[in-house]
Amino acid sequence: MLFTDYLMTQLSAHPSSQPRDVIKQCYQAAFGAEHLLTDPSGAETCFWKEYEEASFPEGRSVPPAEPISPKICRISLPAWKQTGMPGRWLFRMFLLSASTPQGEPEDLNRLLSLADTRLQDASHLPFSIESWNQCLAEYTAGPMEPVHHSDTYRREEKPAYRVVNRELADLIPLLQAIHQRRSLQTPGEKPDKAFVLAIDGRCAAGKSTLASRLAFLLEADPVHMDDFFLPPELRTPERLREPGGNVHYERFASQVLPHLGEQTSFTYTVFDCSLMKLQGDRTIEASPWRIVEGSYSHHPFFGSYADLRIFADIDTGEQIERILRRNGPAMAENFRSRWIPMEENYHRAFSLRDKADVIYPDPKLS
What we know:
Structural class: alpha/beta
Strand order of the largest sheet: 5-8-4-9-10
Low-confidence stretches: none
Shape: elongated
Number of strands: 10
Strand content: 5-15%
Number of helices: 15
Distance between the termini: 13 Å
């Protein structure tokens, strides 16, 4: 979809929209939440006040996430509250989005121009084209700063949302699965056991990126399976023929597995691939959430240690393109001829995709 498609969808979904609200959508689409984070502490205080008071207009509701451009979403505070997920997750989603630089002034000019062209040709608008022309002329003649919603929109829509990056909003189905699984384990109680997420899947499918985002939202340190790369002295032909034999699963089982259910900190030794030897330690800080990410994290040698098993999937063509961009042609060939076949053998041998609780990205979003 193009930006103007999102614009017209918003006008249809929110018939109280006025020209000022179109300008606000253009501004948010260009800059995201970046301009709102001059004071993180104040932003959090404001968030919780608005969150507690947020409610739907009588007789109406909206989905948790409303995309306003290909890259930006508005997350409804009352809709989020209805899901039962912690409000802190949403605040940190906003915080992460707002800390990521977005657009430039020329992006706003481009979006305003696109909006103007589309509105001039539109047959049905919730406002007159004359009012739009006047509002746009006044806005572009000034400093083009952030604007509030119109009084009409605020009265009729009771807007209460946070602007977040689309890639973070797409995590909502996964976050709901995490919340539901956690709630089923210990309904109405503060759990003593840490909740363990294990992210396995195909090479270049975004396992590390997903783990990094979840680590920020859940406030948890991830355990990386790359830290358990098989050392050279164990790489016998027999071992490498094993499905999943390319990981030091014995060391993971002894140094990490016993601690995953605990909420206290622990430390393990890291295998440094650049030195091809064990080098230094990594400390995983205390948290009610544990994230294990990387290939072979679903290895049956570990048993059923994870409370939620996520399989990161990717189309073969896109997989190779990502590896080319990330690693270059020489390494891409190494992945294609060696590492990918080993991983695919491991996936098939243990039916990992079929056994996963969640497929990421959510196929319904693709």
